[in-house]
Amino acid sequence: MVAGWEWDDTLFEGAAAYYARGRLPYAPGLAAALAEALNLDGHGRLIDVGCGPGTIALTLASLFGEIVGVDPDDGMIAEAERDAAGRGFAGRTRWVRARAEDLPAGLGTFTVATFGQSFHWMDQDLVASTVKGMLRPGGALVHISDLKPEAGAEEKAGVAEDLPHPVPPFAAVGDLIKSYLGPVRRAGRGVLPQGTPSGEREVLARAGFAGPQRLVVPSGQLLERSVDDVVAGVFSMSSSAPHLFGTRLGSFETELRGLLREASASGTFSERSPATEVFVWRNDAVER
């Protein structure tokens, strides 16, 4: 857990409705890469911890017999249920509103546990130890994230590539957010002056997992993004979730849309979806 910061249930308040539209997709080969690495055949059970609106769980749904998604945000769980029904997965999915720290919560044992850019919000040692006990011998904990570019690299790359449309003006958007919310990153009712913790490798090794096996799933898809898409991306973030702006939300959105229209006369932007980085940690059959 982050020193000096405590989780509260407003962390992603109001963000769920913007998530699917605003976030760039994971690499399209993610499911195939995990199927090969983990010998997945449509059976077994998956638990997706910090599942959000079901992004990872539903991407992998055809690889398992049963999927359980766990998230503490009501809005995220509602979005996941809606998307699962729309994709025809309602019969094999279950969505549980709970914090990762509340596990095992009577959910049973699993073949695979996934964390899609969520582990950094948790009491990592507690959750790693608990999830290890929920995995069958030989099961796997899978940590999934975007392969992050260097700061500012998206805009620089857009200029160098001569893309069909401008890259979103990320630096200017960040400055606008700071002008409303202050210079220190917001997170729920608190702030994160040092950001969220890293060190997952040490935590998972300490919990007794073996590995990791690292996979990089390439992407680089050229995407067209509208002003609405970029706005959704801003509101999908914990650091700029809608509730943080309070009564100034409307004026912030008006300024944000004006900034974006100035950056692209057509209202269209170009972005490349990032590669996906995966670390697979094995639950040894022999207890340590």
TrEMBL record:
Residues 47-139 form the Methyltransferase domain. Its EC number is 2.1.-.-. It holds the Pfam family Methyltransf_25. One of its GO terms (molecular function) is methyltransferase activity. InterPro entries: Diverse_substrate_MTase, Methyltransf_25, SAM-dependent_MTases_sf. The keyword Methyltransferase applies. Keywords: Methyltransferase, Transferase. GO terms for biological process: methylation. This is Class I SAM-dependent methyltransferase. It comes from Streptomyces atriruber.
